[in-house]
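TA notes, week 10

Several of you asked for a full example with nothing omitted. So below is the full record: structure tokens for the whole chain, then the designed sequence directly under it. When grading your own attempts, check the secondary structure regions first.
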């Protein structure tokens, strides 16, 4: 059984119809998206929400204040996200980068160039870079995460990050809105179905999608 390219667009419509609009990424500013994308590595989103809330209360959701903040304070505020020493230090590093390189200028770069810039920052891997490009800069760069990888595996498609990213991007119109919504829908579907082991009700393993 394997998924065909055209099926990925069909799956998007199935998920959208089932789950409705997701309104991602939940953030008030582009820098908050960056912070959230860094913090969400290897932890639940509910922990990220707590950390973001704490950073906001301390006025640290701006590159200037975050870069200047005491590292011990940042560690305390992001402790709930795990790997807090590493994450605090990386957040300070990213904040310093955006002071030196104003966000508007960086985010006006073409998507591929911006992606490479983000990947050059400490602690930014493929998923974090794509999340920043897609949800903070609003440029087309499909995000692959563990949920996406699991769903694709169920559909008979395996491969590394870049292979799956390329498969989605070659199957979909180049549309920031669709990329943003699709990733959010995959996360929501995974929580509601995959995570709850509702495989017998799976909407994505229909015979007309897979062959
Ligand atoms: S619901 Fe089950 S079968 Fe369907 S994609 Fe998720 S893990 Fe795979």
């Amino acid at each position: 059984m394997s998924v065909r390219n055209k099926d990925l667009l069909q799956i998007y419509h199935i998920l959208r119809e089932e789950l409705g609009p997701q309104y991602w990424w939940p953030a008030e500013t582009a820098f908050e998206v960056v912070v959230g994308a860094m913090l969400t590595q290897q932890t639940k989103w509910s922990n990220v929400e707590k950390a973001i809330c704490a950073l906001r209360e301390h006025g640290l959701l701006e590159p200037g204040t975050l870069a200047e903040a005491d590292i011990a304070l940042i560690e305390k505020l992001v402790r709930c996200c795990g790997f807090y020493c590493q994450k605090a230090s990386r957040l300070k590093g990213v904040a310093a980068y955006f002071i030196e390189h104003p966000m508007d200028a960086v985010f006006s770069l073409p998507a591929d160039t911006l992606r490479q810039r983000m990947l050059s920052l400490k602690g930014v891997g493929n998923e974090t870079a794509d999340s920043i490009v897609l949800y903070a800069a609003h440029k087309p760069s499909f995000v692959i995460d563990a949920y996406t990888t699991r769903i694709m595996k169920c559909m008979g498609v395996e491969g590394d990050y870049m292979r799956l990213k390329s498969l989605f991007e070659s199957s979909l119109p180049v549309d920031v809105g669709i990329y943003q919504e699709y990733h959010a829908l995959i996360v929501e579907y995974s929580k509601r179905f995959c995570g709850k082991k509702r495989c017998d009700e799976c909407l994505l393993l229909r015979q007309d999608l897979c062959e």
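The chain has twelve helices and no strands. Use that as a sanity check on your answer.
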